[in-house]
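Quick one:
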Amino acid sequence: MVAMLLRKTMTTERLFQNIQRELIRIITAVTIVLPILQMIVIILTVISLQVVKRKIIKQKSISSAYSGQYHTVKPGQTLYDISMSYYGTSEMVDEIKDRNNIDDDYTIKEGQKYYCLNKKNGVIIQQILYNL
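Output:
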């Protein structure tokens, strides 16, 4: 009976030793892996912040680029003429149309007022639209 109890005690003691070894192994692995995981989280956070920062800068560029003035259409003037006089290019005709809800190039009339971006801002808009 005493021998049987000693065997059970030895078996229980070995079991606890094995559990202790496994726990030490797990804790060691966690202490090695944890800093790596923390570094990964930091890197992902930095990347996310950079993406958000780029979006904010792009939004600020777009919103600040929309200042301009009203243009009164002169006799015989077309959207092409207006675009050329404000921006030196015809590429902004669509921007003028969009900004002023113009359906086609032939609906403008003498005396109408249309909103045109400042020349500098028109160039910024072209660059932003090109880079999107």
